[in-house]
Structures are given as C-alpha cells and as structure tokens.
Amino acid sequence: MSGYVLRRVGQSLLALLGVSIVVFALMHLVPGDPIRTALGTRFDQDVYEVLLARSGLDQPIPIQYVDWLTSALVGDLGVSFRTGQPVSDALMQRLPATALLAVAALLVGIVIALPAGIVSAVRQGKPVDYAANGFAQVGVSVPDFWYGILLILVFAQILGWLPPSGYTSPLDDPVDALRRLILPAVTAGVVTGAILTRFVRSSVLEAMSADHVRLARAKGMPSGYVLRHHVLRNAWIPIITVSGLQLGTLLGGIVVVEVVFAWNGLGRLALDAVVRRDYPVLQGAVLLIAGVFLLINLLVDLVYAKLDPRIAAS
Amino acid sequence: MMSEAPVLSVRDLEVSFATKRGVARVVRGVSYEVAAGETLAIVGESGSGKSVSTLALTKLIPIPPGRVTGQALLGDDDLVPLSERQLLEYRGTRVGYVFQDPMTSLNPVHTIGRQLTEHTRYHLGLSESQARERAVELLEQVGIPAAESRLDDHPHQFSGGMRQRVVIAIGLACDPDVLIADEATTALDVTTQAQILDLVRRLQRERGMAVVWITHDLGVVAGIADRVLVMYAGEVVEQAGVDTLFDLPRHPYTVGLLESLPVLGDLERRDLTAIPGLPPPPTHLPEGCAFHPRCAFRHDERCATERPPLTEVAPGHSIRSFYAVPEEAARAASTAARLPEPGSDRTTDPEGRDDARSGRT
C-alpha cells in the first residue's frame, strides 16, 4: 500500500511538472509582447528595457523557466501586469470562493444523483427510471447559464427570496454567505447531478449484473442487504472516481456560473486575466487549478485503493 | 437409492420470459426427482434451458419478465408459489448453489471470510466467532491449506481452482439438502476439474446430499452422475441412468451428441459428426417435435405436427420422440462415449468411477 501511495504521489508530481511547462510555454506561445502590452500608450523605450530586464524576459527561455519554477515552488508566481499585486495573493483571495462553490455544487449533484441513479437502476424500465433518465438528459443538454438566469429570475426577481448575485465570505457573515451560495450551487449542481445520475445508474446496473451478486442472492441474503453490501459496495468505486473528476472540473470550469452570479472566484480571475492579457495571473490560476485537480485525483485514487483491495496489490 | 423419498421433486416446471419478440418459453414441462445421495446430471447445449430450470426453482431469475409455473417440491414444500421473502429461507440454506465462473462468482471487495460467513450468520444465527470457526472447517473440507490464515484474504489472492473450492464451500455452508452445481468445473483446467469432482462426490457421500449437476461436458457426466436428463429447447428429451445413456441412447438428439464427441485413441480417425442446424430460438419453437428440423431419424408428418410425449422405452429410461433410435445405431454412437473427454475421472481416477456407479446397477 505505501509503495502504491509513493508511486501515485510521484506520478502526480511528474504530471504537475508537465503542467508547469505547458503553463510556462503559454506566455511564449501567445502572440504579442506582454510588457509592451502592459505599457500600452505609455510606451517608452527606456522604461521598456528596464521592465524587460527586471522581468527576466531577456534571458534564454530554459533559464527563464528554471527561474520561474524555482520561485513558483516557494509561492512566488510574480506580480500582476495590471495591478502589481502578487499573483499568489490574488489567487489565495479567490480560491476559497471557488472551492466553496465547487464543493457545494458537488454536494447538490451527489444529493440528486445518488438516489436518482440508484432508484432508476433498481427499478430499471419502470416510470421512475424514465423520469430520472429524462432529468439527466435535460440536465446535461441545457447550458448552465440558462439555469442560472432562470433561477435568478424566479427566486431573486419574482419571489425575492434570495439575492441574485455576489459572494460573501462565510467567515464574515455565514447567513448571507449561505443565501448567496444557494443559487449558484444549485445551478452548477444540477448539471453535475445530471452527469452523475447517468453514471450512478450505469455503475449500479453493472454491479447488479455481476455473478457474485447472483451468488449473494443464491445464498439467501435479503435484497436490501445484497444492494447495500454487494451492489453498492462495488458501484462506489467508479462513482467516487467520477465525483472526484467532477469536483476537479467544477473547480476549473465554473467560470460561466461565476460570471452569471458575479461570484468572485478563480474562474472570473482567470477570465479577466485572459481578457486583459495579464499572463502572470493567468499562469498562476491555471497552475493552481491544475495542481488542485491533480491533488483531488490523487486523493480519489487513494480512497479507491482503500475500497478495492485489488488496486493497491497490482 | 432410488427407492428413497426424493429430496427434490420437480413437476411440469415451465419458465417463460416476456420479450419484445414475444414470449420466450425457455423451460417447458420439465419433471425430475433427486434422492438423497444421488447425483442427477442435466446436459444440454447453451440455451437448452438447463441453467434457467434450476435457477427458477428458487426464483433467481428476474420476475417479471420471467414467469415460473409447475411445482418444485423440496421435501413437502412447494417453492413455486412462495414470495421473495419466504424463499430466503430456502436459498442457500436448503438449496445450495455453485456457479460457473470462479473468477467472477466471488465479490472482489470482500474477504473470503466475509463471503463464507454472511449467510451462516444470517440463516443459522451464528455469532461472528462461530461463523468463522465454521468457515475454517468448510475451507479445510474443500481442501484449502492453512484455512484460518486465509479467511482475511481477498478473492484475487486465490487461484482459479482455489476460488472454485471457496465457492463450493459457500454452497455447502448451511448444509443444504440439494446442491445445484451449474457448470461448476467448466472454467477450470482438467486436473483441477477432476479434483473438484472428487471433492463434491466425497462431500456428497459424507452428507447424504442430493446433487444436481448442470453441464454440457459429457465427460463430467460420466464421472459424476447417477442419472442424466438431456435437455433440448427447454424440454427433457431423454432421461436415463448414466450407463444406459452412454451405452444405449435412444433419442436422436442424444445419439447426435455422443457422435459429436472425439474418441481418444481412435486410430481410424473417425470424422466427428456435427448435428446439422441450430437449436430453435425460444420465441419461435417449431411445430411438433422441437428437434425434428435437425433430426437424422425423422420419419413422417407426425414429427412436424404433433409434440411427442415423454415415453418410457425401458424401466427408468424415457425419451421424447415418436421414434426411438434403433439399437444397432445407438450402440454404434455409444462407442464415442467409451473413452470420455479428458477431465472426467475415468481417465484420472478409475476408483472414483466405481464409487460413482455403485448402488445403481
């Protein structure tokens, strides 16, 4: 087991190194000179050269990469071209909002998907199965910004129960934070829930058709017991994997929901950075999202190994 | 042995499934009896209904779309009308099942010990330590060395043959009256297969258990069975003692099966004979005798229009055909079975053969 953990950690670090190269290359692949862009109309050749030397952009590319990586390792991701704020500060300011929203959305998704997926698998071909499938189909087909706008319209505009947008830290005002969290979490959660529902259903169906489930029934174990201890116990393994991947996707991919709900998270930060060609911020955001994604994957794999004794052994 | 009251008595068992292409009649009017200590082999091709007919006894098939009628008497209790909840008292406890594939029959995420104790704890009310003791005892009986230390191992830590022994131990754990072994050795190599057959025969003698052994391997039948049912298209086409079936088969289908066997040591290199055609789909069974479109002995219009009844051709030997295969032809076909497939105990354990066959002649 410990060998497996070490191997997986090593793989994750290697992947992160790969990501860092891609992220670093980003700056050099994107056309245009970032310092020239940053100076804009205030361009002056002397200032330009000073800034160029200070930023290290006049060095050979491999040296630039090593410099950037070594400072990134100690948390120094440079400063924003636009605001002059250290990138790591900007990221840390935004990370909690995105993490909160992503975790909340995943919870909403799981709360929808587990019962819907399990019931529709157990009652395969019955009306409840068709209902769950219909929900899943609609859920994945309709874009999330549409749900977002619809929810804002109904719950903020017409009913006035919840605020339409904005983020409050739960540390400042837990009640307001929760009220503001509900609509974006449900918006992102419905889509996640729809994806997961289909997945839970197929995992449970597959687990139900296993020979050992038939043997468990042939042993005279009650159907509820067989479902809990034999079917779901095996179905968890793929469900947990996909849930982990969904969390990773949510962390990096709720840009649209963040924009619709004016949610000050990483997604909006990254989007603004793209629009403003603020490469250090963009690099930092992508690196952070990739790092968190890899970390979640690593954790998922460790849980996975705990659930399926065959994995750590192989 | 035959005079004892049967442990399991199946009468007119019918199993059908509602499908998009119509009603699939997969088991049609199957009747048989098995006494304590006796082994009945059910033989047939894939799709002949042999597995379904035994799964249906305790309704281990999806219902609906499945439907079971007839009688399945275990002692005096008819299992067919029972509810799912009532059947829990029979499954695993009085009817033990051993399934085909040892690689998939065990749950990969639970330990062997857990899988060997959950039903003894549930049905027999054993405490955890009692159940573990029982599990060790069972594993020792089925020949797993260092049983105690292996209880906490997972299935992937066992070889195929060892897993099949575990699956057999699970089937035996609650001391069933009837053990149903569905292709229990098919996935195993020849040596392991012979060991498992010996094991089941020994345990059967010790416990006086009735065994229903489902297989398509005639070598296994010769090695283990007292009596044989041959199934085709959901019905019993021939029923006989094992010696009679191999020496003097009378149904055209059985004769065809025996002729399709390779003969070990046949220096003349007789060509293997295949039965022409394919079994009918259960949704579209032919009129008359289900086998007549493929029958080499087909005689007349009657075969194509009238369903033949199961008729006795000799004491304890019946066939479902209007025309029994003539004795000379039957004997010629039976030469194929003189030397059985490798894997039966006739080639690996001549003594076991005598054991299996005593008490019947």
Question: Summed up, what is this model?
Answer:
The complex is a heterodimer of chains A (314) and B (361). Chain A is mainly alpha-helical and 314 residues long. Helices cover 79% and strands 0% of the residues of chain A.
Key descriptive features of the protein:
heterodimer, A: 314 residues, mainly alpha, MetI-like fold, globular, B: alpha/beta, Rossmann fold, 14 helices, 12 strands, disordered C terminus
Q: pLDDT under 50 segments of chain A (min length 5)?
A: none
Spans of chain B with pLDDT under 50 lasting ≥5 residues? 339-361
Assigned CATH architecture of the largest domain in chain A: Orthogonal Bundle
CATH superfamily of the largest domain in chain B: P-loop containing nucleotide triphosphate hydrolases
Oligomer classification: heterodimer
Order of helices and strands of chain B: EEEHEEHEHHHHEHEHEEHHHEEHHH
Count of beta strands of chain B: 12
3D architecture notes:
The complex is a heterodimer of chains A (314) and B (361). In chain A, 79% of the residues lie in helices and 0% in strands. Chain A has 314 residues and is an all-alpha fold. Chain A has two domains: 2-87, no CATH class; 95-308, MetI-like (MetI-like fold). In chain A, helix 5 (87-122) crosses helix 8, helix 5 runs antiparallel to helix 10 and helix 5 (87-122) runs parallel beside helix 13 (279-307). Chain A starts with a helix and ends with a helix. Chain B has two domains: 1-94 and 177-192 and 204-361, P-loop containing nucleotide triphosphate hydrolases (Rossmann fold, 3-Layer(aba) Sandwich); 102-173, no CATH class. Chain B contains 14 helices and twelve strands. Chain B has helices at residues 50-55, 84-87, 112-124, 128-141, 147-150, 160-172, 190-207, 218-224, 242-247, 252-259, 301-305, 327-334, 345-348, 350-357; strands at 6-19, 22-35, 39-43, 66-74, 77-78, 95-98, 178-182, 210-215, 227-232, 235-241, 311-314, 317-319. Chain B is globular and about 65 Å long. The chains are: A mainly alpha (314), B alpha/beta (361).
